[in-house]
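hiii so um. not sure if this is the right channel but i have a protein structure encoded as tokens and i wanna go backwards to a sequence. like what aa goes where. can anyone help
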């Protein structure tokens, strides 16, 4: 799991969702959408690179 890029993304996703403390389905839905927008292309690229995947 330490070298799996999706685990790093899920950890960030869960932390940010918990911090938002959404209490309704609508709040949670908006929060998830907002949090997903926070993942940059560069961050995703670096996660794969750090996990040892070849990046082009």
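sure thing!! here u go:
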């Amino acid at each position: 799991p330490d070298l799996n890029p999706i685990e790093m993304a899920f950890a960030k996703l869960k932390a940010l969702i918990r911090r938002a403390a959404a209490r309704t389905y609508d709040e949670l839905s908006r929060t998830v959408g907002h949090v997903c927008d926070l993942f940059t292309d560069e961050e995703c690229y670096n996660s794969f690179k750090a996990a040892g995947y070849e990046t082009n």
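oh and The mean pLDDT is 90.
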